[in-house]
Specification:
12 helices, mainly alpha, Osteopetrosis-assoc_TM_1
Amino acid sequence: MKSEQFLYALVFFLGLSVESSFCQNLGSQLSRSSKDPPHPPVPCQNHLDQFERKSKDFTTIILKNAVPVTYCTKSVNDYLAFEQSYKDLTESQDKNNVSCRSLYFNVDRLGVVETMYTNLQRVWKMGFCDDCYSNTSTSTLSNTTKDFFYYWKEINDCITNSSQSDPCLKCMSHYQKLNSFFDGIKKEKGDQICFDLQDAMNRTRILWSVKLNCCRDRAPSMLSFTIISAIVGLLPGIFYIAFYFWRRHQDRFDFLSDTNSPLPEPLIPENSPLQNLPENEYEPGPSGATASTLPRSTGAIKKEKTATADESDDDLIDCNKK
């Protein structure tokens, strides 16, 4: 009986030990599988490593040529290698015809590979770097870019070599040539000019006008500005004052004209029986008033005054004769 109990106990403990070891092995396998995802196929991994290296090289050369901006003309080879590595990664397949794109794109919300490519490409596009080249794929600079940097080198060499003389006088022709050439480019293309050219022109203008102070002769005269501003400011006041006096003169003239103008004579129709009658023979109206009782016109009063004045003058002359 005791031997059977001992045997049962031994079997029980052996079962527990086997179960615990099995669980430990299973747990370790699960932990390893959760930490170490399955490796992608070798060709896709190689393309990913290549994209990583080219992205790093392109980022490094952009940062080294950020100030002043020259990365468009100095990083074109790294940019082309970066683009090619991205193309290989997105278009390649492994030996089982599994696309590498399906392994690294649209697998999570971050999209690290695609986000990195988009950001680096945006730096190239925002600088209008393709405008520097007639053919970007062959790294061939355009004639416009070559001519601009030729004029730019001329003026910089002139300023550098004229440290003991006045660079404003010595290098004026070089600056005008470069400035007019850039203005022609801007008139043709607007603001979509290779940023290497834009930054070089902006720095040259700052050097010329601010540091060397070569635009001092073009500074506007404050005295002329003050005089012109004063004249323009006084013009409205002069206009209103002149208009006020002119209006007063016009009102006075109208008043005197109204005072001296005779009143109009009463109009009598041509076929009226009153037309041929003397003034004192007009028939009385409904109120019984006759022409003799009506107020006389201003013209008649003036005629009487004139006749009276003439008679007085005649009497005065007769008295003098006597």
